[in-house]
Amino acid sequence: MADSDETKELLEKMLQALYAKSAAEQSAEATGDSYLIAADKQYLGRITENVYDQQSILNTYGPFGSLYSSTSIFNEYSQYGGQYGVFSLNNPYCQSPPQLFLRGRFVGNVSANQYVPNRISNKAFLAALKHDIRALLRGEMPKDGGIKREGIYLQAQDGQFLGNLNPNRFDQDSISNKFSPYGNKFSQTSIFNKFSTYGGQFSQLSPFNRISNTPPRILDGGKFVAYLTVNTMKTPRVDPNEVMEWAERNVRKRFG
Amino acid sequence: MGQIEELVDRVDDVLERNRRHEYVLIGATLVLFLAGIAGIVQAILSKNYLWSIPPVFTTFFLKWPIENINAIRRGNIALALAPLLIRELPPPEAAKEVQKLLENLFKGAT
Fold first, then answer.
1. pTM of the full predicted structure?
2. Does B68 contact A at CB distance below 8 Å?
3. Are residues A170 and A131 both part of a single domain?
4. Looking at this predicted complex, what is its ipTM?
5. What is the DSSP string of B62-102?
6. Is B4's CB within 8 Å of A21's CB?
């Protein structure tokens, strides 16, 4: 088993060295282009719809999109993608995050650090890259939960997606799934976590705060349906303690 | 290219260590297999068929060394191929192929 690890380690190092060489050869001749660049001036890939472009940030076999490349924001062990990376967009304490340029113009700093000026949320950026790169290229930056979603789902007032109301316990995005990020009582994005921003008794964004004026909303394809709150002053509302039953009654047909 | 060549030079060492590990595993497989056979022979000779129970377990335990031997051999093929790819292809292409090798090798293989 140890030898197998050594084989893997050696191959990974070779791959990293190859990607580093490719990245050095292909670094930014990027005027008028849309791209991401690190604070140390390392080019981090082109923002393009063409995932086969060798410079594309989405090319999983390219130096900027591969999980194994040291110049990829998707490599969780690299300084540009790791949680502790000095120039990483995923490091919540990073002071010098990557910069996003669209058509050659600086748009913002992509970072998990909320205190960075001109911040673009890393989650929003990655979601836009994945789901709506055209909007990203147009400069329309979606909020965390601003991606167009189908069906009936919950959204916090700060834009955070809080899961859909599909009663299917195996749906990865459903609040009914106790192992999903939205149904697990230990998840920070679950309304069932009593200690989280979205589930705590005293949080303004929680459905369980009796006096909150900004509880999560139930949306149907983006259209408002009702508030999810125990605050009886808000109408229309669904009681969060009965949300499962409500979902059973109203949502099952939709998800089939 | 210096760093890549250093890594390529390490391939022979890793292959050598893999070979040694493989011999150990083949030895362990043989011991288990012979122990199973011995159990069956003993059962037949002594007509005491309780002796045929241990071979069931030894056969079951053969699974792990055989799986490991397979993993090591797959790794060796990849290790032998990688330097060739690096020498023959331009870096972006070589990286793509080495990544595919890695993914095929370690996706659910071990």
1. 0.52
2. yes
3. no
4. 0.79
5. THHHHHHHHHHHHHHHHHHHHHHHHHHS-HHHHHHHHHHHH
6. yes
- Among A138, A159, A176, residue at a domain's last position: A138
Query: What's the number of CA atoms in the CB half-sphere (13 Å) around residue A29?
Result: 3
Q: In which order are the strands placed within the sheet that holds A217-220?
A: A161-164, A152-155, A217-220, A223-228, A237-238
Closest Cβ–Cβ partner in B4, B75, B92 for A14: B4
Question: How many domains does one find in chain A?
Answer: 2
Q: Give the tens place of pLDDT for each residue, A54-68.
A: 889 999 888 899 988
A245–chain B Cβ distance below 8 A for any pair: no
Residue numbers in B near A15 (CB within 8 A): 95, 98-99, 102
**Domain carrying residue B7:** 2-106
Residue A11 included in any domain: no
Q: Which residue of B has its CA nearest to A3?
A: B18
Residues of A in contact with B28 (CB under 8 A): none
Q: For chain A, which residues score pLDDT lower than 70?
A: 1-4, 25-32, 140-150, 252-256
Evaluate if residue B103 carries a pLDDT over 50: yes
Tell me the HSE value of A230 on the side-chain side, using a 13 A CA sphere: 16
Task: Yes or no: say if A235 and A251 are a contact pair by the CB < 8 Å rule.
Answer: no
Say whether A102 sits in a helix, a strand or coil: strand
Residue with tokens 């071990």: B110
Which residues, including other chains, have CB under 8 Å from residue A210's CB and lie 6 or more apart? A230, A231
Instruction: Assess if residue A99 is contained within a domain.
Output: yes
